[in-house]
Amino acid sequence: MKRIDSEDMRKLLKVYFIMGSVNCRLSPAETLSAAADGGITLFQFREKGPGALTGAALLELGQQLRAICRDKRIPFIVNDDLELAVALDADGVHVGQDDLPARTIRQRLGEHKIIGVSAHNPAEAQQAIADGADYLGVGPVYPTSSKDDAEAVQGTAVIDTLRRSGLNIPLVGIGGITLGNALPVIRAGADGISVISAIAGAEDIRETARAFGRIIQSGMLPE
Ligand SMILES: Cc1ncsc1CCOP(=O)(O)O
Ligand SMILES: C=C1C=NC(C)=NC1=N
Ligand SMILES: [Mg+2]
Question: Which SUPFAM superfamilies does the record cross-reference, listed alphabetically (predicted)?
Answer without folding.
Answer: Thiamin phosphate synthase (SSF51391)
